[in-house]
Design goal:
single chain, 25% strand, 253 residues, 3 domains, Tetrahydropterin Synthase, Chain A
Amino acid sequence: MIVFMITILIALLLIFGFGGLRIINQYERGVILTLGKYTGTLEPGLRWIFLVFQRMIKVDMRITTTDIPRQEAITKDNVPVGVNAVLYFKVERAEDAVLKVENYLYAVSQYALAALRDTIGGGELDTLLTERERIASDIKKVVDIETAPWGIDVTAIKIQDIELPAAMKRAMAAQAEAEREKRAIIIKAEGEVKAAENLQKAAGILGSIPGGMSLRTLGTIDKLQPDPSKTVIFALPVEILEGIKALISERKK
């Protein structure tokens, strides 16, 4: 009988001894509850807990990526948009993530979702489209402050897609096309002004040289290749006649 009792005792000790062994990975922490009360956080490695009286909750300390589903919101200038984003966060204090919030994954994602809607509703469409990074940073700050007591660190929030109504897309495309046409007209006008200035300078230089305009006109005529079936009539300026007279006089001398 004594041997039997000793055998049972040894078996119970083995069950409690080996049954209480736990392995905590490098990226995890183990939150220990003894009779329902928090008594400590275990580091990675081979650990032992007292069965029946103790319970260990593992918490992943790596960065977690959570999709914020597409949200319908109305901007400050009354434009309906659909926005989705990605939330990046990690647990800094495992005990707070377990003890202060029921499900920290769900809680953080829902808080980010609400902050996304509020931020979009408080800004105009142009700001949302041109300052996406700043808006994402503002949302991160809001969520980070509110989730810090839970032992959560929000590392980043990225806005992925901004969906606009079809009518708004057409209006923006028409605006962009008009803007491009305006720039093209301005560039063309600036080019014409520059060309006119250069022509004015060239005319001044040619006018200051005796026979310069005549030579320029003759050079232009020489480059023309009219159709043999057509007759081209040139109205020669007075400068050419004067140039010819000057050449004849020079040859007579």
